[in-house]
Target: Wax synthase domain-containing protein
Amino acid sequence: MFEAQVSVQQPDSFQDDISDDEKRELIQLFLDASSGLLDLFDRSEIDQLVDATHLNAKGASDSNARSTGDNGGSICLYMMIAIGAQCRGQPTDSPKAFRYFSEARKLSFQGFLTDLTLNMARAFVLMAFYMFGACRRNAAFMYLGIATKAASVLGLHMSDQFQSLSEEERDLSSTATMNLWDDSTRILACVKSASSLLGICFSSAAIIIFTPKSGPGSCIRYAWLAGIAAFTRPFFRHAVGIPTSLVINTVLIGQLCLVIFQACNFLVISRFESRDLVQGGIFQPADGVIYKLYRTVGLMFNLRGIGTPWQIPRRHPVPKFFNQHKENGRLKVGPWITRQLFIMFWQYIFLDFTYFSSLQTPPEEAAVLFGPGTEFLYLGATADQWVARVVGTVTAWTGPSRVIIDFASRLLSVVSVLAGASSPEDWPPLFGSIRDAYTIRQSWGVFWHQYCRWWLTSMSNYICRDLLRLRRPSRLERYSNTTLVFLGSGIVHVLIDIYCWQPPTKGPTIAFFVSFAVAIIVEDAVQEIYRRVSGRQYSEDAVPTWHKLVGFVWVAAWLSMTSPWYLYHAVRQPVGIKWLVPISIIDTIGMAPAAGILAGLGLIGIFAFGGEV
Model:
């Protein structure tokens, strides 16, 4: 790369003499140039910086008259103006760009060693960007190094450091941290994360195969839990910034976190040993050590236990479309792959459309509807807030939340089948039908994915039956089991949120999940009372339609009352770190054509592939 030689002489004096309109024009050029690379500021921040600098210019034109506390925002503003002028390229823009860059550089070095702030870290990122544009890559790398070290000193990579900050400051810190990760850093993070995860899994598999489940030799299983904890923390720390979307981060870390919990389940709760895995058909005694390790690790990733003796109950049936695409009783790979890819393409456009639809809500309106404290607002909530609560909750659970998890599963299934590592029969539908979600129990046990079910029920059964020795069957044992399952799910989501969404408090997440145990107790009691009063008993296939309609209203009401405790903190995060697809189709073709494509593909899916997703 050509290294340009330019003047480094500092201008004798600096006067911020361009109009606010020109500033906004240059800043827009900066935003256009940095789109997809940097996401350091939102529009409201930029407006505040322009207004504040304009007021400062009226009070004191000399930059030395400004306080050190004001410098961080001024430096960032001057750098955005400098980059915008650099991009515009008019004859007078080159000296203007250098003048604003020089002033920003002077201000940044006046007190950056004694007054290190988030704005300073952002300013050095901008200076690096400017230097790359000026073909000064050596200086750019120097500035980028300062920005990275500043982020490290500020603790932006450690979620615990954010707890004393306001919610707005936490959002800024998260956004800045995402932007300080470059491609090489992400590749290194991928390698480190994969190494940590595989180290946990293969070490656990070796212990499972070569140690007994009981007796003195089993002590190593319990000791290894400390090793898993030691490896898990760096795994989370490295994995958290690989994608720049907190939504994708949550799905990625959530899936892999469950694998780690499954390893713990195999070690000390289900206490598998080599003999159990032989009886379960995972491997044979004569198989080699490498193959045994591979198959045991594969079982850890098989969270639903499909095709094993430990398969979860209520495996969803294969869509009826495949009744005509079987050979010798097995699904044909070609039609199966075609259907999976078609559904994935529809889901991709749906997620893209969902994200762009969320951008249509003005920040001021979003602050009113979803601002801090509104998740706990009931009697004092406005009609608009109630509409947002109900519609947003139902849409979130039946739309993007379901689709993005299902998309990840389908993608993995296609890769696995094409690679010959599995067959289509190993990938039954992840989610059930929305028609079955007419009770809270059915919503979680039939409609929603069952990734957590195996290890959570193993844990709850161990506590209730082995430790507490509760009488079985009994209501106490049944509902204690249910409560422990939802409590365990809440704890898992808190662990994920600590590294992804970083909520100010963890209580609302725990309360949200445990509330479903309460809801199940309530609905079971109501159903029991109805059966005793009416004398009627219905099987699942013969539930009256009006019962289901009442049930849907009940489920929607409970979700609307409790889901904001868990979801609203994520809703308040900057939209720039919540994208759902890496490459946007709508950004190219627009919303209206995308809506038409989405509807058209939906109709094709219904008539050509049966419509069961």
About this structure: The chain has 23 helices and two strands.
